[in-house]
Amino acid sequence: MVSNHLLLEEPIRMASILEPSKSSFFPAMTKIVGTLGPRSRSVEVISGCLKAGMSVARFDISWGDAEYHQETLENLRAAIKGTKKLCAVMLDTVGAELQVVNKSENPISLKADDTVILTPDEGQEASSEVLPINFSGLSEAVKKGDTIFMGQYLFTGSETTSVWLEVEEVKGADVVCVVKNTATLAGALFTLHASQIHINLPTLSEKDKEFISSWGVKNKIDFLSLSYTRHAEDVREARQFLSKLGDLSQTQIFAKIENEEGLIHFDEILQEADGIILSRGNLGIDLPPEKVFLFQKDAVHKCNMAGKPAVVTRVVDSMTDNLRPTRAEATDVANAVLDGTDAILLGAETLRGLYPIETISIVGKICAEAEKVFNQDLYFKRTVKFVGEPMTHLESIASSAVRAAIKVKASVIICFTSSGRAARLIAKYRPTMPVLSVVIPRLKTNQLKWSFSGAFEARQSLIVRGLFPLLADPRHPAESTNATNESVLKVALDHGKASGVIKSHDRVVICQKVGDASVVKIIELED
Fold first, then answer.
1. What distances in angstroms separate CA 504 from CA 111, 402, 433, 523, one per listed residue?
2. Are 463 and 88 in contact (CB under 8 A)?
3. Separation in Å, CA 53 to CA 48, 324, 360, 462
4. Which of 73, 79, 199, 515 is the most buried (most CB within 10 A)?
5. CA 441, 443, 447, 450 torsion: positive or negative?
6. From the centroid of its chain, how far is CA 113?
7. 167 C-beta neighbours (distance < 10 Å), count
8. Which stretches make up the Pyruvate kinase C-terminal domain (predicted)?
9. Run of H or E including 390
10. Which alpha helices (H) appear in 289-373, and where do they start and end?
11. Residue 174: per-residue pLDDT
12. Is residue 278 a contact partner of residue 296, using CB atoms and an 8 Å limit?
């Protein structure tokens, strides 16, 4: 168990807390993933979300068809062009999700102590007595006394939209349950979560594969959020599937830990995945409430030490309907940042919430304030100790760049990279200043055509804490002479100056490759 990375300078002036925060080009080092949907799919709203700090747009394919999501994505592209803000695309799979299909979309009222039957007969109409589900094996997986949760958005803070069911008996393929709380379910689709029970469904469903093969390939998705990841083999199978889909071989896979199985196999999943999403909604149902924080802190720490992004979900559920988060939610966001989280993922808050732009803005402000008291010195020492000696060449360069930047109080670290790996390693040590990742494209061929790499690598930096990408002119090679490096550096410095990150007389740490040598240098800017 790792103690909080919290740094408070003594003596603390309580009145200083009331002083307004300084505005910055970068709202926060911690990134924000926003789910686009009915309330957040217009060009105007998406532009507002980008300006507020959203750097990754999530598309949840458990609802909506390809045409709907394509229209949303085209609006995202228009917003990116209009705001000049980079944004990556994440596709979130359906996975091994149990669902109730309410074809009529009529509200269904369930009352405490009543019984309701879950049946695999999808031809039946959903009602308060019978609910058809998409899984024929539920009766074989559960037993009397087991717990099943159901709702359109599972436990978002309002118990009137989620139902807790207890299995009373199994009748053939049907499961008879007792309703434990009164609620009204609205909408066309409800999710079921059987607590601590193995569900024999594939991690990548046929719908997932079809959607990825068409929509995903067409739009060159940057991230695949692999729902209900239970084993490392799930990640390997998904990667093998993507490897056959051309450009999607570069798509990063983020394993979504949503149940007890994923928790038990966390270490092996982390080795295979490119990043981890802690889906605290479903996971919070499988785990006792008093254990959720423990898993979060341990999982985030392991991600940090592995240098892989950790994303935390379900932080400001109340902002789905309210303009301000609760005090507990605001503290929860800050604690996630202090734990070392790379990004905060907003689901219902932006998908169907009344205040998507305001939610992103407030979460960004909370993250920025928490980052000010993040004890980077303690974190750096622990990371170096964990890595051990001898360090790899790249690890040594990355840690040295961060150490130098802190010692000279540099305003920014600029890293030249072609794969993005060096910049991610620098970000792993959590420098207190932004890292500008200058991605220099490489010319590549598939024997049919020539193309430049770099766009994927740049966008995939947008989920890493403290990393801000800049795609260089492709005419500059990845390994170049001093002259061409200097010209690319000038572009990066000009970008930093324009954004207000770099000012006259500031010190800047540069990490670059010259020939076969990796170089860390410090420059001081003139007027």
1. 67, 21, 16, 12
2. yes
3. 9, 17, 6, 11
4. 79
5. positive
6. 38
7. 21
8. 395-515
9. none
10. 289-306, 327-339, 348-351, 356-372
11. 95
12. yes
pLDDT digits (tens, 9 = 90+) for 341-387: 999 999 989 998 999 999 999 999 999 999 999 999 999 999 999 99
- If residue 188 lies in a helix (H) or strand (E), which one and from where to where? none
d(CA 5, CA 378): 7
| Gyration radius from the chain CA atoms | 24
End-to-end CA distance of the chain: 48
How does DSSP classify residue 12? P
Q: Which residues lie across from 222 on neighbouring strands?
A: none
Distance CA 124, CA 34 (A): 35
pTM of the model: 0.91
Structure confidence by residue, pLDDT tens digits, 390-441: 998 889 999 999 999 999 999 999 998 888 889 999 999 999 999 999 888 7
Say which DSSP state 459 is in.
Answer: H
Measured CA to CA, the distance from residue 118 to residue 102 in angstroms comes to 13
C-alpha 30/C-alpha 32 separation (Å) is 7
